[in-house]
Amino acid sequence: MSFLSTSLDRIKPSATIAVTTKAAELRAAGRDVIGLGAGEPDFDTPDHIKDAAVQAIRDGHTKYTAVDGTPACKDAVIEKFQRENGLTFERNQITVNSGGKHTIYNAMMATLNAGDEVIIPAPYWVSYPDIVLLAGGTPVIAPTSIDTGFKLTPEMLEAAITPKTKWFIFNSPSNPSGAAYSENEIRALGDVLLRHPHVHIFADDIYEHITYGDFAFKTMAQVVPDLQPRTLTMNGVAKAYAMTGWRIGYAGGDPALIKAMAKIQSQSTSNPSSISQAATVAALTGPQDFLSERAAVFQDRRDLVVSMLEQADGISCPRPDGAFYVYPSVAGCIGKHTPSGKKLQSDEDFVTYILEDFGVAAVHGAAFGLSPHFRVSYATSTEALTEACRRIQEACSELT
Ligand SMILES: Cc1ncc(COP(=O)(O)O)c(C=O)c1O
């Protein structure tokens, strides 16, 4: 009998972290590898945010804080939700956690019983199904397709709902597809949800500030206010403020749920870092102008990557409205042979081929629940992206 818990058998390690680790190992072994696997901005955390953290240390904010966030941090989150999303919350409706992933974990741990279903549109962020499984729930995967722009239609949502549905996880803009739902598309999904009062909505807005052109970001509780009492609106500083290492996520929702999440947190991690909370106050209440400047840089990179991948034989690459990912189809490469004679049977074979033969690390679509695709994170330099896409073009042209 194993010493380890059987609950580990329900989940797998994060595929995105695995690819990043493998790329780092190959690099350490002297290989020239370009990593397109990591989901973090290559920008640095802005100085005014770092300064606030240094000041917090100097001022002695180095002790335990209230379990689910300092009053100052909760007030900054309240201000953000009001200013950017038109959502009004009190402090007892706000939770601050050690990263957005932790927010999701607390919410699922606090609510799921055996047999409870959680609807997750595919392609999905790799951690959703595993967190649901770890919490003892059942993920119900609702597949979308390249034809719907990787978006869930109201019919698809309706078909996935059962009497056992507890949550609908809604991530826009999406990791891994970049798909971003318009206000009308959100309202159409909201109309379905209004007919099913037992379903709660987990709105993962972490890519809110990374959208392009005239796309206008909206969140579910804002578009359909009648859903606000059963929506947990989640966000974090990682992606917008280039603060992945600071580990702060937060959410606003029903006070009873927020209290239950604090109970879980009080017996696991306790408060998120006091210093990171101080930095978060500076991030959410300080200057915001760099957000659109950085989004413009990401937009140029998106356009570069889409146009170069579209030119690769066998690849088709939609142009999404947000996040820093594209999710090209490799349907035209499957069944072909590599120069060494290996037949590409899956998207996993494809990413193995481009990593081992061309030194480009990306994540296969199966990890995100929708094949045959792969995910490219373009949160890296223009030079690296240009070279990586050139190598992918070469890899595709050598398939027969
Ligand atoms: C869709 C989505 N939600 C949540 C997170 C969690 O972010 P963090 O835990 O770094 O705040 C990520 C990070 O990759 C993500 O892509």
Question: What does the model show?
Answer:
With 400 residues, the protein is α/β, with parallel strands linked by helices. 40% of the residues lie in helices and 12% in strands. The chain is built from 13 helices and twelve strands. It has helices at residues 15-28, 47-58, 71-85, 100-111, 127-134, 154-160, 183-194, 220-223, 255-266, 274-285, 289-310, 347-358, 382-397, and strands at residues 34-35, 94-97, 117-122, 138-143, 165-171, 200-204, 231-236, 249-252, 325-326, 360-361, 363-364, 374-377. Strands 2-8-7-6-5-3-4 form a seven-stranded mixed β-sheet, sandwiched between helices. It has a three-stranded antiparallel β-sheet with strand order 9-12-11. Helix 5 links the parallel strand 3 and strand 4. The longest helix is centred in the last third of the chain and has 22 residues, at 289-310. The N and C termini lie far apart (49 Å). The mean pLDDT is 96. The structure holds pyridoxal-5'-phosphate (PLP). Pyridoxal-5'-phosphate binds at residues 39, 99-101, 125, 171, 175, 204, 206, 236, 238, 244, 249. The site of pyridoxal-5'-phosphate (PLP) has 13 residues, from helix 4.
